[in-house]
Specification:
This protein is an alpha/beta fold. The chain has 3 domains: 86 residues, Translation factors (Elongation Factor Tu (Ef-tu), domain 3, Beta Barrel), CATH 2.40.30.10; 130 residues, Rossmann fold, CATH 3.40.50.80; 90 residues, Beta-grasp domain (Ubiquitin-like (UB roll)). It contains 7 helices and 18 strands. The strands form 4 sheets. It has a 6-stranded antiparallel beta sheet, with helices on one face. A 5-stranded parallel beta sheet has the order 9-8-7-10-11, with helices on both faces. Strands 13-12-18-14-16 form a 5-stranded mixed beta sheet. Helix 5 links the parallel strand 10 and strand 11. The structure holds FE2/S2 (inorganic) cluster (FES).
Length: 350
């Protein structure tokens, strides 16, 4: 699928007071843990946002979970105004928060989700349970309070459908949990205690972490310290807490001083581009290829990823690619700036 396609809203379910589950009528193939980039014009402004699919891959109904964020143009529309029959544009499902499921695998998975971070985790969890009958899943699910907990009915249905293979532990930051350990902010010390208590397992085949930057980084370092191989710890950030993220404000840089030239392949067609002083590779490519995919422009969603075939770049921040993906030449073009004299050659058809 090239570029945006139109999706039709088939169903809207109000999950909590400030969240909704939206199912689309169309079917597109996807992998568990992937997201959709949605695009809509709101008040004369093009708005793009990524929302994770919370459905069973590869061919379940396309369903996203959306939590309303203060002053969020897209999330306010999706949680309050959207109705069945409404249309919205979307890119093909994408994202690297996934793995290769195998029907023969007898794996243990540890999942930690916070808030709306449950949406891709639910997709991974439901897909693993449905496609790998000998695999087991532990989930630690952290929320402010029980009434803000998304997908709770779906999770309980999953537990009932796969009795003995699913363990779900709920923790709350502003409400008492089932035990003292399950109440309050899950900082690194608390995460260590949860491992000691057996509520987080580090002796698993895959760990999946999705939530705010601080939690994900703390959980990752605790699991690796306890022996998890880093390439088995999968990360997805929902917000970076403002830390270090850089978001360009405009596509056309004010400077016209060209610092590098390059070629970009997208949808099988190659285009030449010029990088102006201060701008990213994404901004430079978008001037000649407006169909270049992107969403967050903050180094989180990976929608803008491409393979660097030639030249040298430096990324401002990277919250979307693993070390092995970087070793394979992938870069986040929204964060990439040329650092050498060589031509930059990137391939978005990866
Ligand atoms: S657009 Fe999201 S990481 Fe580049």
């Amino acid at each position: 699928m090239e570029g945006f396609t139109t999706l039709t809203v088939a169903d809207v379910e109000h999950d909590t007071a400030d969240s909704a589950l939206i199912t689309f009528a169309e079917r597109l193939p996807f992998r568990h843990g992937q997201h959709l980039v949605l695009r809509r014009e709101i008040d004369g402004e093009e708005v793009r946002r990524s929302y994770s699919l919370c459905s069973i891959a590869p061919d379940g109904a396309l369903r996203i979970g959306v939590k309303r964020v203060p002053e969020g143009l897209m999330s306010t529309w999706l949680t309050g105004e959207v109705r069945p029959g409404d249309e919205i544009e979307a890119l093909a499902p994408s994202g690297n928060f996934t793995h290769e499921p195998s029907a023969d695998a007898a794996e243990r998975h540890m999942m930690i989700a916070a808030g709306s971070g449950i949406t891709p985790i639910f997709s991974v969890m439901a897909t693993v349970l449905a496609t790998q009958p000998d695999s087991e899943v532990d989930l630690l699910y952290i929320n402010r309070a029980s009434n803000s907990t998304m997908l709770i009915e779906d999770l309980e249905d999953l537990r009932d459908a796969h009795l003995g293979r699913v363990r779900i532990t709920y923790a709350f930051t502003r409400e008492d949990g089932d035990a003292e350990l399950l109440s309050g902010r899950p900082d690194q010390n608390r995460l260590e205690q949860l491992i000691d208590a057996g509520l987080i397992r580090a002796d698993v085949d895959h760990a999946w972490l999705c939530g705010p930057l601080a939690l994900v980084e703390d959980a990752r370092s605790v699991l690796i310290d306890r022996g998890m191989p880093s390439d088995r710890v999968h990360l997805e950030l929902f917000g970076t807490d403002g830390a270090k993220a850089k978001r360009p404000t405009t596509v056309s840089a004010q400077s016209t001083n060209v610092v590098a030239t390059g070629r970009a392949t997208l949808h099988g067609r190659q285009s030449g581009f010029e990088v102006r002083e201060g701008e990213s590779i994404l901004e430079a490519v978008r001037r000649v290829r407006p169909d270049t995919p992107f969403s967050c422009q903050a180094g989180v969603c990976s929608t803008c990823q491409a393979r660097l075939l030639c030249g040298e770049i430096e990324m401002d921040v990277n919250y979307g690619l693993t070390e092995s993906e970087i070793a394979r030449g992938l870069v986040l073009t929204c964060q990439s700036h040329p650092t050498g004299d060589d031509e930059i050659v990137v391939d978005f058809d990866v």
